[in-house]
Write a structure and sequence with these properties.
Blueprint lengths: L2 H15 L21 H7 L15 H25 L6 H27 L20 H9 L2 H29 L3 H26 L2
Amino acid sequence: MNTIKTLSIAAALAASLGLAGCAASSGSGNPMPMDHGNSGSMSGSMPSGGATPGAGADHNQADTMFARMMIPHHAQAVEMSGIILAKPDMPAELTAVATKIKDAQAPEIGQMTGWLEAWNVPTAMSDHSGHGMSGMVDDAGIGKLKAAIGTEAERLFLEQMIGHHEGAIDMAQQEISAGKFPDALQLSHAIVEAQQAEITRMKQLLAGL
């Protein structure tokens, strides 16, 4: 990749970061773009040394795996949110959570896909796509969610999404420990903060059923 192309990709990704937030929405009242985290806390979580976010920044294998694994993880959260939003007569509190998750995570798929394209790394995980992604719901679980109605649908969604969020936090913490790409580290810190807040909110809703 020549210098002009690298700079063009970096500029495009930097612009996209202004539109995308983190992987899930925060109930903490300190929104980032796409409802996650806040600019103050995120600036504090950026790696030291003044590295400028963008595809041209250094990255390692942990960053690559984080993006490749989190893309399908995000995609399932979007799918699950869409399932619950399509059901009639769901409580407003529940649909608000599902809407924020869907609206936040869908753009993140594009953001992380952009990183991988800039690194010339395939996004597909081949036949190991479901391995190592903590919190993923199996096909049977997704089928149950699709078939459920009323309170049972609420309960299933909350239980499944709480576990899904916990898995995302585990993956983010692994990236924080081993990664080096500034944007991925920023996103990972946001995931930990925002999704933990959402877990708290969903547990409250679950207890109220």
